[in-house]
Q: What sequence folds into this?
């Protein structure tokens, strides 16, 4: 089958128990733009919030499902254990370290363990995050920070960086990455715990920070029990609907259980789980978030795909008001 290589990360979707605090942290502290305030299309009683660069370019989206009664996350294997965010250079990390200290954000020291400068930190629910420097990056280009962000543009977040998968059986996930999805293994670096295997790095498309998966195998942890502060799935970029339908055929041919083609309005998708249980999505680059809002007003109002519009009154009645116009 004539498949084009995946282009890199499309988005990462995580879980929050508090949409209001989530909005404050990701827009006011991290300086991302809320480009879409919508609903979980599989459960219309909860918000789906999309944070990104100035217009939600593919590869810049960090999204959250609000699940108000979500419990604590008990960290472990078979999970998406770290989401990283790109900044332009090493100097930006010094800015962020100072900003985190002033804002009381839980953070680590700047390190070079992954082969590039990085700064780990956690949000108010323990979401595991890391800023990575693009100073020496070659590969997928980043996005453009929103000009109205509270963070100066030269230090702004420009997209998603490497995503870390922590699994009990590394080989089965690596085979899916390489044999099914077409990633290539490029390098490795020491794991976080002594006695554990090195973390393996896989990349796709043009490579670089916006197209890497880091695979960590751990035999000393239980399986993760997800809750608030955990990641639901990671999505990879596909050019368009025509290419996505080829991927639907291919994934089905591999006998991996999958969703088939799914209409998400802002993009089209395919979902499947690899053998360790991690949920992958393939998503098209378009149509994009300006399909139903203009650039200036992105994220200010509740956006519903047309097939939910007739239910707007009942949907809004179930949602706790969330002011995103400030």
A:
């Amino acid at each position: 089958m004539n498949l084009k290589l995946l282009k890199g990360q499309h988005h990462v979707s995580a879980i929050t128990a508090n949409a209001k605090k989530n909005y404050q942290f990701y827009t006011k502290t991290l300086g991302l733009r809320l480009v879409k305030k919508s609903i979980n299309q599989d459960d219309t009683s909860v918000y789906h919030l999309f944070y990104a660069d100035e217009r939600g370019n593919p590869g810049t989206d960090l999204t959250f499902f609000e699940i108000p009664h979500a419990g604590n996350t008990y960290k472990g294997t078979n999970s998406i254990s770290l989401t990283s965010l790109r900044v332009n250079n090493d100097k930006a990390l010094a800015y962020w370290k100072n900003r985190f200290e002033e804002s009381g954000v839980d953070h680590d020291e700047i390190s070079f363990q992954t082969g590039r400068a990085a700064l780990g930190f956690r949000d108010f629910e323990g979401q595991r995050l890391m800023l990575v420097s693009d100073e020496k990056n070659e590969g997928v280009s980043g996005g453009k920070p929103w000009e109205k962000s509270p963070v100066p543009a030269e230090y702004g977040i420009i997209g998603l960086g490497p995503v870390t998968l922590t699994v009990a059986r590394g080989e089965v996930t690596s085979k899916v990455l390489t044999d099914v999805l077409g990633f290539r293994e490029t390098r490795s670096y020491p794991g976080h715990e002594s006695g554990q295997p090195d973390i393996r790095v896989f990349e796709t498309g043009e490579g670089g920070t916006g197209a890497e998966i880091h695979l960590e195998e751990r035999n000393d942890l239980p399986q993760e029990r997800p809750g608030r502060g955990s990641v639901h799935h990671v999505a990879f970029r596909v050019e368009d609907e025509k290419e996505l339908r080829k991927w639907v055929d291919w994934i089905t041919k591999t006998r991996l259980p999958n969703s088939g083609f799914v209409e998400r309005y802002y993009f089209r998708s395919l979902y499947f789980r690899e053998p360790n249980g991690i949920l992958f999505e393939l998503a098209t680059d378009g149509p994009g978030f300006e399909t139903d809002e203009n650039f200036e007003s992105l994220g200010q109002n509740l956006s519903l795909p047309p097939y939910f519009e007739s239910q707007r009154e009942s949907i809004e009645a179930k949602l706790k008001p969330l002011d995103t116009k400030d």
